[in-house]
Amino acid sequence: MAAPAVAVRAVAWLLLWEAAGFTCSPATTFNNTHFVSGIRATCSEIILRQEVLKDGFHRDLLTKVKFGESIEDLQTCRLLIKQYIPTGLFVDPYELASLRERNITEAVMVLENFNIEAPNYLSKESEVLIYARQDSQCIDCFQAFLPVHYRYHRPHVKDGETFIVVHNPDLLMYCDQASLRGVIRFRFDSFGKTIEFPVLKCWAQSEVTAPCTLNSKDICQWNNMKYKSVYKNLTLQVPVGLTIHTSLVCSVTLLISILCSTLILVAVFKYGHFSL
């Protein structure tokens, strides 16, 4: 009696697994696994990662965005990163113009009427729009490049360093409305229930007005995207001077200025040609 009972239980378990969609051929298993992972993609699977390259006062801010699923159905969509630049940093608009001409990056300042030579305590926060490009090595990834520079800070009494916090940017997406109608916005899970396309579910209700492309005068309504950041905020360490060195620095600077000015005057009178 024990053997028939075990057999009945085994058959019952097999029927339950088959009804739940867990039994299939190897090829079907691979396809369903990829399919279900796409269905389960949530806003937390849109991952943003920022890192700073180079050393010194002149750095490169690299932003990478990875979607949790294939975005082949959204090829008509564009990704825009709105980066907030704190007072301790600045972006040179003339440098951006040169990089755009060489097709290195597609970034533009929101407002360019600010002093790039001002120290951090006399500066204001600025904003940069960066049109992200699709990563050639990752079909579901975008990346953006932005050169940033440290501003001068007030000298400290004891600690010879300060910190700059770069907050996470706004992630914006715009899709061509005509092409978006043809996108399969709903999929079916293993139980036949319709689920909205995951990337579209991550669109926030708020919209941001910005140019459709870098060189376009047309204005588009970009949707603010929800995402998960690898780091809460990006923190940069900046060396600053010490107030106890003020007298020494001023004295040495003055002496070097006098010496250089004297050498220039000697060279002018020695090798210069004057005519009355």
Automatic annotation (TrEMBL):
UniProt entry keywords in alphabetical sequence: Endoplasmic reticulum, Glycoprotein, GPI-anchor biosynthesis, Membrane, Signal, Transmembrane, Transmembrane helix
Membrane topology: Single-pass membrane protein
Biological process according to GO: GPI anchor biosynthetic process
Signal peptide: 1-21
Organism superkingdom: Eukaryota
This protein's record includes keyword Signal: yes
Cited Pfam families: PIG-X
Function in brief: Stabilizing subunit of the glycosylphosphatidylinositol-mannosyltransferase I complex which catalyzes the transfer of the first mannose, via an alpha-1,4 bond from a dolichol-phosphate-mannose (Dol-P-Man) to the glucosaminyl acyl phosphatidylinositol (GlcN-(acyl)PI) intermediate to generate alpha-D-Man-(1->4)-alpha-D-GlcN-(1->6)-(1-radyl,2-acyl-sn-glycero-3-phospho)-2-acyl-inositol and participates in the sixth step of the glycosylphosphatidylinositol-anchor biosynthesis. Probably acts by stabilizing the mannosyltransferase PIGM.
The name this protein goes by in its record: Phosphatidylinositol-glycan biosynthesis class X protein
Organism of origin: Bos indicus x Bos taurus (Hybrid cattle)
Gene: PIGX
